[in-house]
C-alpha cells in the first residue's frame, strides 16, 4: 500500500500524472484559498500593530522558511549560534519543539551534540522561553528556530531559507503546495539563503537570485550548500566520507525533503541498495527498527547502514543486522554572500559580551 505522504508529495509536485491526480490538484487549489485568507488577515493585524509583538531586552535572530519541512534549518541555526559563540556572546536557541512531548526532539539532540555550550529551550510559547533564557540563563542574544511565522516575538534579524531545488515562485500555498506563506512575505525578511545550490543547475540558482533582487531589492541573498563533513558512530568515533564510496548501503531518514539526503549519498558515491523515507521528525518504533534490520540483513557482508544525524540521535544503534550504522554529519557552507550575511549578524553583537 503506498504511503499517503508520498502520494500527497507526488500529487502537489506534479510528479503524479493522470485524471485522478489532476482532479486532486484542482481540489487542493481551491482549498488553499481559505488558508491564504487566514494567513493574510493574521499578517495584516501584525503589520498594522493591532496585534503587537513582544520585544525583549536582547537581540533576537530568526532562522525560518516559507515552506513546510526540508530547507535545512538546523545546520543554519548551528552556523548562526556557532558564529555568536565564537564572538563571545552568550546565545540560546528557542524552538517550538515539534514531537518533543516526551523530551528533547531530534533537532534539539543534534544541536546539543554539536553545540554543547549553547542551551536549547523548547516549547509552544516562545515569548515565555525568551524570558526564561534572559532571567535564568542570562542570555545576551536569542536565536529563534523556525520562527518566521511566529510573529508574537519581535525580532531584529529575519533569515529565511529557500530550497533552491524547489523554487518558491513556482510553489503554491498549503494544501495545494508546500508554502506556509506567499513569496511576497519576504518583504519582512532581511536575509535569504538559497540552500542546496549544489543540487540544481547554476542557471536555476541565478534565475532565483534575479527574481529576489527584482522583487526585494533590500534583501541580502546568500547561496549555501549542505555539505557532508564526516561519518559519526554511536560510540563517538568518526570516519572519513570516503568509507561509503562504492559500498552497498541501506539508507533511511525522517526528513521534510528526503530526496536531499538521497542526493547527498549519490554525491558521496554510495551504492544505495535500499532507501527508506519516514515522515519528518519520525519517532522510531521497535517495528521500524526490525524492518530496517531485515533490510540490512540482505546487504552483502561489506554493506553499511547510513542515516542523518537527526535520525541517528534518536536510534543510538551501532549496527543493524551486523552492518555498521553511521550518521552522515552535515554542515552549512555559504558559497556566496557570506561577508554580507556576517555583517548582518555582527551588527547585533552586544557591546562588552561577558565571554570575551
Task: Indicate the multimeric state.
Answer: single chain
Q: Total helix count?
A: 10
| Uncertain segments | none
CATH class of the largest domain: Alpha Beta
Strand segment tally: 13
* First-last Cα distance: 58 Å
CA-based gyration radius: 21 Å
What's the helical proportion of residues?
Answer: 25-40%
Order of helices and strands: HHEHEHEHEEEHEEEHEHEHEEH
CATH topology descriptor of the largest domain: Rossmann fold
Quickly give the structural class.
alpha/beta
Overall average pLDDT: 92
Net shape: globular
CATH architectural name of the largest domain:
3-Layer(aba) Sandwich
Q: What is the percentage of strand-forming residues?
A: 15-25%
Q: Work out the count of structural domains.
A: 3
Instruction: Summarize the main sheet.
Output: 13 strands, mixed
* Assigned CATH superfamily of the largest domain: P-loop containing nucleotide triphosphate hydrolases
Q: How would you summarize what this structure contains?
A:
The chain has 356 residues and is α/β, with parallel strands linked by helices. It contains ten helices and 13 strands. It folds into three domains: 4-47, no CATH class; 60-227 and 334-346, 3-Layer(aba) Sandwich (Rossmann fold), CATH 3.40.50; 229-330.
Features:
10 helices; Rossmann fold; 356 residues; alpha/beta; 13-stranded mixed beta sheet; globular; 3 domains
Topology:
Layout: H1 4-13, H2 19-47, E1 60-65, H3 73-86, E2 91-95, H4 106-114, E3 120-122, H5 126-137, E4 141-145, E5 157-163, E6 191-195, H6 202-215, E7 220-232, E8 238-239, E9 248-254, H7 258-268, E10 271-278, H8 286-297, E11 304-308, H9 309-315, E12 319-320, E13 323-336, H10 338-346
Helix pairs in contact: 4-9
